[in-house]
Predict the structure.
Amino acid sequence: MVLDSSGFGIIGGDRRQLALAESIAADGFRVLACGFENAEFTGQVQKADLQETTEVCDKLLLPLPVTADGRTLKAEFAQKQIPLNDTLAQQLKGHMIFGGKVARALQACPQMADLQIRDYSVREDFAVRNAAVTAEGAIAYAMREYAGTINGSRCLIAGAGRIGSQLAPRLRALGADVTATYRRAVTAAHIEAMGCHALPVEKLAQGGSYEIIFNTVPAEIFTDSVLAAFACGTLLIDLSSAPGGVDMVAAGKHGIRALHAFALPAKVAPRTAGEIIKQTVYQMMKE
């Protein structure tokens, strides 16, 4: 693919965007990074303020998510916060803009709706690749937090969507006995084809003797009554989006060790996660 020679501006983010900036620069493009005052780049990435970034670059890449608090741009390496306001919207105007999980930012700053930000996180190609990173990270997380081995453990995956379908065969390959919940008969067939047990989601409340539970459902399905049916000492890793799908207070009450493991790609594999964003944005530009 041939891209024009104008610059890419990376505005805010976490370790994924740091790696993204370096990767785009390695492709031979000029890259300016705003909101990375407390970061160090190994490649040919130039740190800049917002004004210079928007003046030089016609392509702007916002973080994933664009905002974590609903008030400011997510910028973990910035010296000061970047407010989501009309001033920011005015500076971004006239650019080709890409961001992840844009909806909350639009709610916080309605003026940004006029910018027509392209959301790379809603694309299926991005979601599938990102789910693979999340699944690998979830296993690494479980290995760190579980006192036993994955081999021989009984694992339950709540949800057999993108993440669940990537996680199940990886756990099986490590020797785990895997059960995954389903809502549709075709999903049950896919679960069984992977050598796993299929559990109707309505039977989740019956509990079971699992050593490790992975939740991928972004809704509170592990309520007080559901958690009461699982064994004390179970490790429950919540992979869903914040605020999560587990009643954490109830989990503690029932002796279940419940842990949030949100945004794993940024934590366990930022370089790969950054490459996935780059690959997706390049493809969107090509289209």
